[in-house]
Amino acid sequence: MRSYVYRIRFILSVIAVTVLPIIVTGIVLLKAAEQALLEEKEKKLVAITRQMDLALLKDFDTILREQGLQNAPRLQKIEGLNGSLEQLTDQIAQAHPGIGVGYYSKELDAILTYGPSREMAQHVGTPIAPNHPGRQVMSQAKSDVVIGPQVRGDIMNAMSPIERNGEVIGYAWANELMESIDIQLAGMRQGIYSIVGIGCVVAAVASGLMVHRLEIILIEIKEGLRRISLDLSARMKPREGEPGEIVEAINKMASDLQASRSHTETIIHSMESGVIALDHSGCITAWNEAASRITGIGLEQAMGRDYRELFKGEAALLKALSDALTMGKTTKDEEWSPHSPKGPRLYVKIGTFIWRSPMNEVLGAIIVMDDRTEWKRMENSLAQAKRLAVIGELAASIAHEVRNPLTSIKAFAQIIEEDLPADHDSREYTGIIVGEVERLNRFADELLLFSSPNEEKHVSAQIGEVLDQTLLLVERTAVRQGVRLEKVYRDHLAYVLASPKLLKQVFLNILINALQAMQEGGKLLVETSVEDSCVYISITNEGSSIAEEHLLAVFEPFFTTKQSGTGLGLAISQRIVQAYGGYITARNVEMGVQFTVVLPAQKEEGRA
């Protein structure tokens, strides 16, 4: 609707620009023509009055003396002068049709002649009004042209004083009815109006055609710009003339912009860091592949959307972007963990920057994201390894200190049991003492294994073979619980340098935990692969997920969420794998929980 209104305004403006000058020109020409016609009439009438003055060869007194009427009454003098001058007046009037002419006597204060006499004879002998302009002409001895109601009616009246012997004896006049002049003016106006009207119509039609052609060109350019805005590879159809130059310039600009954007986008999309750009209103204008990988949001889903809507619920990210856009405050090395209901938890370092133009105008904000999850895991693993080493030393000391008293307690309990009769009630208690001592001994063995997992001999161990032997140990339990064991060995012949016995202990601890989490059955998937000189063994169960805050803590000694257990199984497994230069990770996946053991792969030349 708004574009339609603008279009109408534009058309009217163009028509006004072309038509108004014609109308103004027509009005000016009309006024000039009217003025010219009136001036021409004035000159003509003045010329006739001079002709009448020249035609009066004798003054009024001379004419009366020749007629012997110098002493006659006023009326006889008027009749005598009229009879003498009437023919002359009629001849001049006849020579100028539509013109009224005559003589006036100052002394007699009367109209002497008024031609054509057949029409105006009744005015002969009458004086002019006291305010008649003729009296001023006679008193000032100066010619004048007056338009207005007079003796004949509404006329243009030219009057010239008649001077004889240095004395004004009267005046001669020539006049024309304004009605006649108006008729001529009306004809002239009609002609000018017709010319102006035709000019306006022609100008309006020409303007309309020009506007229509211009509108077509503008629509094509607008549509072309719209296509180019969506696809920089699009080009506008070439045209001739000046529009063609505009189209050529736009196409060249699009080509340059495409080359520039392609270069920039290639750089941005090649970056490992996530890059997001927002305009000053907070809408996403740039988004690279790394940003999609970190946030889990696709490019099509992100572009053009408001960041407040897109990152709803991500308080740290929203605050960083809001500070940059509203206060110009940048952020460096801020940590953010995206809320992801599926997949592992990420640790992201974010930094914000103000986006400025070459003219230093604020265009918006840019945020750079670095996935620090692996770095965070290594940092936590290193800290955990240090803690485990300290705890291991303490555990070794405790185990050595506890084993000797336990041996004595077990020996004395057995001696007491041998001295008691077979049916004695105390034999039950000595059996309990011996059982508990053996349990404490096993716990001490676990502590010793936790403190020194690398004392076992390192040999070349085939991962697939070790896994098969370990799975045999849990196969019956799995069948009893309704758990399906599935194996996917992508590199069955992968080798590592380690103790097969301890590796079996590692895998057994993870499998037992997995089966305990799958009381209602499901699938237990064991996968192996080799990447970047490392062997990856993933064990994925369909049990319940682990709380995010517990994913790293499960490898801490004595940490357990079970009612029974020492909490040393996974801690010992992590210590064993770390002793071989690897590590274990735990993460929640869509189907459940996945534990991944990573070990350095043994090189071919190192195998016996």
UniProtKB/TrEMBL annotation:
Membrane topology according to the record: Multi-pass membrane protein
Gene from which the chain derives: atoS
Segments crossing the lipid bilayer: 6-30
Pfam families, A to Z: HATPase_c (PF02518), HisKA (PF00512), PAS (PF00989)
NCBIfam families: PRK11360.1, sensory_box
Residues forming coiled coils: 31-58
SUPFAM superfamilies xrefs: ATPase domain of HSP90 chaperone/DNA topoisomerase II/histidine kinase (SSF55874), Homodimeric domain of signal transducing histidine kinase (SSF47384), PYP-like sensor domain (PAS domain) (SSF55785)
The HAMP domain, residue ranges: 212-262
InterPro entries: HAMP_dom (IPR003660), HATPase_C_sf (IPR036890), HATPase_dom (IPR003594), His_kinase_dom (IPR005467), HisK_dim/P_dom (IPR003661), HisK_dim/P_sf (IPR036097), PAS (IPR000014), PAS-like_dom_sf (IPR035965)
EC number assigned by the record: 2.7.13.3
Enzyme class: transferase
SMART domains referenced in this protein's UniProt entry, alphabetically: HATPase_c, HisKA, PAS
Domain spans labelled Histidine kinase: 397-603
Catalytically driven reaction(s): ATP + protein L-histidine = ADP + protein N-phospho-L-histidine
Protein name as it appears in the record: histidine kinase
Alphabetical list of PROSITE patterns matching this protein: HAMP, HIS_KIN, PAS
Compartmental location: Cell membrane
GO molecular function, one term: ATP binding
All copies of domain PAS, residue ranges: 260-314
One record GO biological process: regulation of DNA-templated transcription
Protein keywords: ATP-binding, Cell membrane, Coiled coil, Kinase, Membrane, Nucleotide-binding, Phosphoprotein, Transferase, Transmembrane, Transmembrane helix, Two-component regulatory system
Highest rank taxon of the organism: Bacteria
GO-annotated cellular components: plasma membrane
